[in-house]
Amino acid sequence: RRCPPLLHLRSRPSAMPAEPAAAHAAEKPPLTSDYLDCAQLRFSLGCTTVADKAPLKAQLLKQIEEKEMAPFYRATCEALGWEADAALLAKLEAANATELARLSDAIKTAEESEGESEICSAMLAKAEFLMRIGERAKALAALEETYAKTVGLGPKLDLLLTKLRLALFFDDKKLTADTIDAAKGLLDQGGDWERRNRLKVYEAVFHISTRSFKKAADLLLDSVATFTATELISYNTFVLYTVTTSLLSLPRADLKSKVIDAPEILQVLGEIPHLANLLNGLYECRYRTLMEALVGIVDSLYADRYMHAHTRFYWRELRVLAYNQFLESYRSVSLAGMATSFGVSADFLDKELSGFIAAERLSCKIDKVNLVVSSTRPDKQSAQFHSAIKQGDLLLNRLQKLSRVINV
């Protein structure tokens, strides 16, 4: 048996024509980010850089109790080394058992006396409940069962987006990648722009978690004017991801037109600590401001569950970008002068540049006698000349090898 299209799982109405079951959409509350916020709160509580954890713990426990998340509470206590409140856990488990029995009865009743739409709605309600309380395996199985009985591109895409939230909640990268591919396959057959744009944000968050910042930046910039995925991340977090990934991915001209001058970004840029100074400090060559803002941004990224693993990489790459940008303007510059521009000591800068030069990340050399940094970056004409010589040598070597084979 195959069910008709399910209710839409979205927070805002689509601009495209409604699905057949859209008349029942009012019965479902709008989607919020509360579900994924719980995963972020638990992650923040495990971060060493978070100083005051008491408010976060209180907030998380409030969410757990309100949503009756017994499995998630048990897993959180194990992960963070908390002593579980036996009375609270028993209360949550009892509530879960009661609700599961009610949902199972609703499915049975729908199968016996109601239509296909009611059956699918009952199945989806059970899947969403299992997902909400943190029962990963059972929720995934329930979603798969509901998906198999669903017809219509829109409802299927909504189920895949729900599945993506489950995968992101549990940081299951393989499940996330597979679900994104499945959703893209459906979008190739059709689908409205609202779901297409939401999927871009989901995919961008996945790319951030796998350090594919260029892909993430492209998807986020495409979604700036049409962002509606508030069930995944807040708009301020969306702007934070957009700016931080774009800084490493875009050339200066594109950074100006797509990020700095974007009204959608400008309206909230000042609400995010240090982000405006980070963006404008790099673009306007105010390197002291950039370095000060970078310290604050890195602390925020370290406590973010998607950026945490890449914080050291981001810290290093943005400094390399700033040093290269600074040195492009000079043939040589005093070490003390460059250190002053960046707001660091000459000794720190000496060690920093030495490491990047040894790793061939910077085209310069340090004169330790005169304390001068000299650029060794070849000009464009010289670089083309050396490239032509190198390719010519390679061609001659291949011709020589070919002549030996022919002579034999």
Walk me through this protein's architecture.
The protein is mainly α and 408 residues long. Helix content is 69%, strand content 3%. It has 19 helices and three strands. It has helices at residues 34-45, 54-67, 70-80, 86-113, 116-133, 136-148, 153-169, 173-189, 193-209, 213-223, 235-249, 252-260, 263-269, 275-283, 287-302, 311-327, 335-342, 346-358, 380-407, and strands at 332-334, 364-367, 372-375. The chain has a three-stranded antiparallel beta sheet. A hairpin with a 4-residue loop joins strand 2 (364-367) and strand 3 (372-375). Helix 6 (136-148) runs antiparallel to helix 7 and helix 8 runs antiparallel to helix 9. The longest helix has 28 residues, at 86-113. It is globular, with a radius of gyration of 27 Å. 31% of the residues are buried. The model is unreliable at 1-26 (pLDDT under 50).
* Structure annotation, total helices: 19
Mean pLDDT: 89
The rounded distance between the terminal residues' Cα atoms is 72 Å
Secondary structural class: mainly alpha
Order of helices and strands: HHHHHHHHHHHHHHHHEHHEEH
The coarse overall form would be: globular
What is the number of beta strands? 3
Largest sheet entry: 3 strands, antiparallel
Strand order, sheet with most strands: 1-3-2
Low-pLDDT windows of residues? 1-26
For this entry, give a set of tags.
408 residues, 3-stranded antiparallel beta sheet, 3 strands, globular, mainly alpha, disordered N terminus
Question: Nutshell version of this structure?
Answer:
The protein is 69% helix and 3% strand.
